[in-house]
C-alpha cells in the first residue's frame, strides 16, 4: 500500500500518454485536410484549330469630301452647298438612289495663320467641309459613282470598304471547320501517345468582328485626276472570314 507522498510522485505519469494522444490526434486532424486537397488532374490533351472561309463581297461604302473656302463663313458655306448639290445630282444621274446617300458631317470654321510681324494669329478666311457617306450594293458601278462625284467638284474620296451580308453563315462554317481541325489534331496526338480521346472537357472560341476589305489608296489618287479619260475600274477581292478555337479532351490510356 502506497502512502500519499508516493501517490503524489506517481500520478503525473499518465499525463504524457494523454498529451501524446492529443498531439497525435492534432496531427491527424491538421494533415487530413491537406491530403484531401491534393488531387491529381486527369490526363488530357489540348489542341487549337483555325479555319478560313472566303466569300464574295456584296456591299460597299465610301465617303465623299467637299471642301470650300471664302472670305466669310456665309460665303464658304454657300459655295459648299452649291458643290454639294452638284455632286448629289451627278450621283443620282449616274444611277445611285437617294436611299444610298447620307450626309454625315457639315462644318464651317475660320482659317488662321501666324503673323510674324504682330506675333499673333490672323484670320485669313473661312473653310466649309461637308462629308457624304455612300453605301451601295451596285459593286459593278462603283467606278462610275466615284468618277461622277469627283467630276462634279468633290475634293476627296475615302478608300472603298467592302463587306458581305452573309458574314454570319460564313462564320458558322469557319467555326465548324476550326473545331474539326482541332479534333483531328487531338486524335492524332492521342493515338501517337498510345491511347484514345475521351470526352470533351473544354471548348472556347474568340469573337471576330465582321471583316471589311478596304481598297488600296492608290485607287483614290487615280480617281482624283481631273476628267479621267478611262473610267475608274473597281475590282473587289474576296472577304476572308476567320475562326479559331481551343479545346481539351480527356486522354484515355490503354488498359494494362
Fraction of residues in β-strands = 25-35%
> Ranges with pLDDT <50 over ≥5 residues?
4-36, 216-225
Main pleated sheet: 6 strands, antiparallel
Going by helix content, strand content and strand pairing, the class is: alpha+beta
CATH architectural grouping of the domain at 59-163? 2-Layer Sandwich
Write a concise synopsis of the structure shown.
With 256 residues, this protein is α+β, with helices and mostly antiparallel strands. The chain has helices spanning 4-10, 15-37, 73-93, 142-151, 167-192, 218-223; strands spanning 44-55, 59-70, 101-115, 120-136, 156-157, 161-163, 196-205, 213-214, 239-252. Among the domains are: 44-54 and 168-208 and 244-252, Endonuclease I-creI (Roll); 59-163, Protein of unknown function (DUF541), domain 2 (Alpha-Beta Plaits, 2-Layer Sandwich).
Q: In words, what does this structure look like?
A:
This protein is an alpha+beta fold. Among the domains are: 44-54 and 168-208 and 244-252, Endonuclease I-creI (Roll), CATH 3.10.28; 59-163, Alpha-Beta Plaits (2-Layer Sandwich). The chain is built from 6 helices and 9 strands. The strands form 2 sheets. Strands 2, 3, 4, 5, 6 and 8 form a 6-stranded antiparallel beta sheet that branches. A hairpin with a 4-residue loop joins strand 3 and strand 4 (120-136). Helix 3 runs antiparallel to helix 4 (142-151). The longest helix is centred in the C-terminal third of the chain and has 26 residues, at 167-192. It starts with a helix and ends with a strand.
Annotation keywords:
34% strand, alpha+beta, 256 residues, Endonuclease I-creI, three-stranded antiparallel β-sheet, Alpha-Beta Plaits, 6 helices
Amino acid at each position: 500500500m502506497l502512502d500519499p507522498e508516493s501517490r503524489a510522485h506517481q500520478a503525473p505519469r499518465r499525463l504524457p500518454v494523454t498529451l501524446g494522444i492529443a498531439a497525435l490526434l492534432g496531427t491527424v486532424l491538421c494533415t487530413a485536410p491537406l491530403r484531401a486537397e491534393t488531387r491529381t488532374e486527369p490526363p488530357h490533351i489540348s489542341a487549337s484549330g483555325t479555319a478560313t472561309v472566303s466569300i464574295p463581297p456584296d456591299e460597299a461604302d465610301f465617303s465623299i469630301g467637299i471642301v470650300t473656302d471664302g472670305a466669310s463663313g456665309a460665303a464658304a458655306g454657300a459655295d459648299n452647298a452649291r458643290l454639294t448639290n452638284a455632286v448629289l445630282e451627278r450621283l443620282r444621274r449616274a444611277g445611285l438612289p437617294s436611299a444610298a446617300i447620307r450626309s454625315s458631317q457639315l462644318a464651317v470654321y475660320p482659317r488662321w495663320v501666324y503673323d510674324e510681324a504682330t506675333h499673333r494669329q490672323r484670320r485669313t478666311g473661312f473653310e466649309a467641309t461637308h462629308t457624304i457617306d455612300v453605301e451601295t450594293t451596285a459593286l459593278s458601278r462603283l467606278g462610275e459613282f466615284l468618277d461622277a462625284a469627283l467630276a462634279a467638284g468633290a475634293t476627296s474620296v475615302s478608300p472603298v470598304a467592302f463587306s458581305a451580308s452573309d458574314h454570319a453563315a460564313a462564320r458558322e462554317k469557319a467555326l465548324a471547320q476550326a473545331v474539326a481541325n482541332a479534333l483531328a489534331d487531338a486524335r492524332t496526338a492521342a493515338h501517337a501517345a498510345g491511347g484514345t480521346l475521351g470526352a470533351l472537357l473544354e471548348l472556347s472560341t474568340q469573337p471576330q468582328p465582321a471583316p471589311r476589305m478596304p481598297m488600296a489608296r492608290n485607287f483614290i489618287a487615280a480617281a482624283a485626276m481631273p476628267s479621267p479619260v478611262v473610267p475608274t475600274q473597281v475590282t473587289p477581292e474576296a472577304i476572308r472570314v476567320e475562326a479559331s478555337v481551343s479545346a481539351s479532351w480527356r486522354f484515355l490510356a490503354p488498359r494494362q
